[in-house]
Amino acid sequence: MKFLQDDTVLTRALSRFIEIVLANALWLIGSLPVFTAGASTTALYSVTLSMAEGDGQGIISTFFASYKKNFLRSTAVFFALLFAGVFLAADLWSAAHWDVPFQFILEILILSAGYFYLLIASHAFAGLAYFSGSPFHVLKKVFGLAVRNGIYTVFVMVLSVFPFLFLAKQFASVYFGQWLILFLLFGNGLIAYLNSLHLARLFASDAQRGAGA
Questions:
Q1: From the CB of residue 88, how many other CB atoms can be counted at a distance below 10 Å?
Q2: Closest CA to 42 of 20, 71, 83
Q3: Is residue 126 within 8 Å of 191, Cβ to Cβ?
């Protein structure tokens, strides 16, 4: 089949899609014990950032090398984000059900905290995949980078959360199973890759500034 050997836009796109499917499958396998989802997501971003930078490194070797290297850091961040998310959700639910004069102000404050929570959560594992250092140091760095990048940061945040909100909305639909299968096939891998197209440039520019300082 000659067209598979030709270096065309179609064959490059097909090759990249297959790579995304493989990376997504590795992410699913690595996330099967739920507490390892953080390490698996960091490893997924190691793969997709490498794709975005055109490094040409092996997907499987890159994934498992990152998984092993970043397991403890990623797991710590995963549980910190999980507990913070549960805390914010409980606060928002409580504020929405309190009949007090300053209820609206409380809701605004909690939603504002939720925005910054989502900002960190959507950049955290990509940052762990790219930068070395303690989890606190990496989260501080990616928070500063995200805050300074305006609309691109919003793009990453929306892209990271939209598929999950869409699946939740489709839960009662007869098409939910089909959408879920598509997401499990390539969904999170595609999200990570699209995010990485921006984040790879963002992180590289920061690394260059640090090297030049």
A1: 16
A2: 71
A3: no
For residue 50, what pLDDT is reported?
Answer: 95
Encoding tokens for residue 16?
């990249």
- For 152, counting Cβ atoms within 10 Å of its Cβ (0-12 exposed, 13-18 middle, 19+ buried), the class is middle
124 contact partners, CB below 8 Å, separation of at least 6: 77, 81, 138, 139, 142
Measure the CA–CA gap between 198 and 158, rounded to whole angstroms. 14
Contact 117, 85 (CB under 8 A): yes
In the block, tokens 């793969």 appear at 47
CA–CA dist 171, 190 (Å, integer): 21
Domain ranges for the chain: 2-212
Which pTM does this prediction carry?
0.90
CA–CA dist 149, 185 (Å, integer): 31
Q: Specify the amino acid at residue 71.
A: F
Give 23-34 pLDDT, tens digit per residue: 999 999 999 989
DSSP 76-119: HHHHHHHHHHHHHHHHHHHHHH---TTHHHHHHHHHHHHHHHHH
DSSP 183: I
Token pair for 51: 């794709």
